[in-house]
Design goal:
By secondary structure, this protein is of the alpha+beta class. It is built from four helices and seven strands, in the order βαβββαβββαα.
Length: 157
């Protein structure tokens, strides 16, 4: 079984409902068990800012699915739960990202692990640290808590 961290976000409609529906489907369709869930945090949109605020959560799961099979299952879950693709970085009913998959590093056209936005999003770092303060970033081998502290320090220079 692989230990995987998933990021979930929603900023359209019943945001909590979409996240909960996605979590139920992840357990059912990804041969997964949920080990831990972070708190849910409301965040302002980034990249494309002219849209409603997001609710974001990170969950730690165990799954038998390989990374690319997991990605396929998650894209199907997004669609089944009600995601309508409008445009890149636009509003979404549900968004599910593979943030980490064990200590695997993948850089392909369709899947990048660790997710490249982790270190750019304080709320993702905070959720990961909430779930495991000792969690190690697989590329740099630094604790995510060190990465967050460094990112926060740079903001105030």
């Amino acid at each position: 079984m692989a230990v995987v961290y998933l990021g979930l976000g929603s900023n359209i409609g019943d945001r909590n409902g979409y996240i909960e529906a996605a979590l139920l489907r992840i357990v059912e369709e990804c041969k997964a068990s949920i080990i831990a869930k972070s708190s849910i945090k409301e965040t302002k949109p980034v990249d494309y800012e002219e849209q409603p605020n997001f609710l974001n959560q990170v969950v730690k799961i165990e799954t038998e699915l390989a990374p690319f099979d997991l990605l396929s299952a998650l894209k199907k879950i997004e669609s089944d739960v009600g995601r309508i693709y409008r445009f890149s970085k636009g509003p979404r009913e549900i968004d599910i990202d593979i943030l980490l998959y064990d200590d695997v590093i993948i850089d392909s056209d369709i899947l990048i692990i660790p997710h490249r936005e982790i270190i750019k999003r304080d709320f993702v770092l905070e959720h990961l640290i909430e779930l495991d303060p000792q969690l190690i970033e697989p590329v740099s081998k630094k604790k995510y808590s060190e990465v967050l502290n460094h990112a926060c320090f740079k903001k105030y220079q």
